[in-house]
Design a protein that fits this description.
There is one protein chain. Mean pLDDT is 82; it is low at 1-6 and 102-114. The chain is mostly helical. The chain folds into two domains: 1-105, RNA polymerase sigma factor, region 2, helix turn helix motif (Rna Polymerase Sigma Factor, Chain: A), CATH 1.10.1740; 107-186, Winged helix-like DNA-binding domain superfamily/Winged helix DNA-binding domain (Arc Repressor Mutant, subunit A), CATH 1.10.10.10. The chain is built from nine helices and no strands. The chain is globular. This is RNA polymerase sigma factor.
Length: 186
């Protein structure tokens, strides 16, 4: 069964390289929810994540000749998404440094749980965890999001990030320790 999927993906890639827009849609559609979730976790903003995914897919379309029909497209798409997220995080950091964009934090959606007090506490804790993840250095955040949140193996994360498995393991370990320290002492 995997052979059929791989052949279909390889055929779609060749069609995309030839400029067929429908083939591109069929190629990226199965990956879109995962890519959006990854971007949302990296950027902690649904609207920024949607823009990052749109920009990434537009970039892939523009540079479609770089697609390799001999390799799965999922890893390539993930790498492009991570690069777009890095770009946005750099711009966000620069804007913050210069004092732009103050007060644009995304609101947390209310929980429909019956106990409003517990729900408020849960939302506060979730917001605190999200904030601390957002404050992690980008390299630590990428490894943590890919492995602990996105569910990828350390090997997959290492390939996507262009580092060794040991480096990913170390980054995830450091990210978890930093989060533990920040959340225990806050």
């Amino acid at each position: 069964m995997a052979g059929i999927k791989d052949t279909n993906e390889a055929d779609l890639i060749e069609q995309v390289k030839a400029g067929q827009r429908r083939a591109f849609d069929r190629l990226v559609e199965p990956h879109a929810p995962r890519l959006l979730a990854l971007a949302r976790r990296m950027l902690a903003s649904t609207s920024e994540a949607e823009e990052a995914v749109q920009n990434a897919l537009a970039s892939v379309w523009i540079n479609r000749r770089r697609l390799d029909s001999g390799r799965p497209v999922g890893g390539y798409l993930t790498t492009v998404i991570l690069n777009k997220c890095r770009d946005r995080l750099r711009r966000r950091k620069a804007a913050s440094f210069l004092g732009f964009g103050q007060g644009l934090e995304e609101a947390v959606a209310p929980d429909d749980a019956p106990d409003p007090e517990n729900s408020a506490l849960d939302r506060q804790e979730l917001a605190r965890v999200k904030l601390e993840i957002e404050r992690l250095p980008v390299r630590l955040r990428e490894a943590l999001v890919l492995v602990a949140i996105d569910g990828r193996s350390q090997r997959e994360a290492a390939e996507l990030l262009g580092v060794s498995e040991k480096t990913v393991e170390t980054r995830v370990y450091r990210a978890r320790n930093r989060l533990r320290e920040k959340l225990e002492f806050s």
